[in-house]
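Reopening this ticket.

The earlier resolution said the output was attached, but the attachment link was broken on my side. Pasting everything inline this time so it's all in one place.
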Amino acid sequence: MLRLPRSVLAPFERFSLYNSPYPAHDSGCAIDLYVDADDSLARSPVSGVVRETRTVRAPDKPYAHDEEYLVLVDVDADATGLLWTGDSESDPRDGLVARILHVDPDVEAGDAVALGDPLGRLVRSGFFAPWVTNHVHLGFRAATANHHRARGSLPLSVDVPVSPLDWDGRGTVVDVGETYVVLDRPTRDGHADTETFVGLGSDEGVVLDGGLAHYAFGGTLSPTADDQPLSLLGATLGRTTGRDVPWADFDVFANGERVTGLSLFAARGSFGTKVVSPDHDFAVGDDVVVSIRPSDDPIRLG
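Inline output:
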């Protein structure tokens, strides 16, 4: 498993390994690195030399750019600070290629880039769900792998601790989008250092990641035992398979109305629960109580 150092995460406000329905994120084999909402500049999450840039058609969505971009970088693993946690014989860092998506590149093949260098402008492509904010998608392939297909990236972890936040399901709406609302809780109370990453904790104190449960499975961002049962707000979420969590069958409710789900991530700045609900009528200042109930027909988007 490749372990990403803090320096890779430093230019970004949030990250998620599992909050996507696309196969590149299966078992945490890619990371989405989110920027501040007002920032459109993409900064490089790796050091190396650009191998290739490619433009492809994206699904036609009214809220999205109609093209997607792939930037391939031959990675300088030492300069990037990548660690390998497997055995030395299978260490893939020599010849490693980074796959970067959602960036309209200002770089081209042969350009050298360092961590934090501008790569181009972030784009919202048709591969985004409407509630997803701008981010850099990053995955890694061995030199001998197919660098263009969706599947085949190496599993990733982060070399930073993520602290769990307790939550009672309550919050006040502080931000509203057409398809989501953000609550003011849980807060970073007890984690005043904004460089410390935090995430929503299960009832057992395990940091959760992913689309709960509108995507078929999520994962954990803190150490867990295999086959550990997890719950949230007193409801069963599923059991760990390694660090993966195939979600149990349940629905999420906000003030008694079924919503699509919760969008989970780790953040080093402010934190609040993101409730995904395309048909909501919430407004800033509304008090919300979230609950989870077993379901025979749970929402599944991918």
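Reporter confirms the inline version is readable. The chain has two helices and 28 strands. The longest strand covers residues 48-57.
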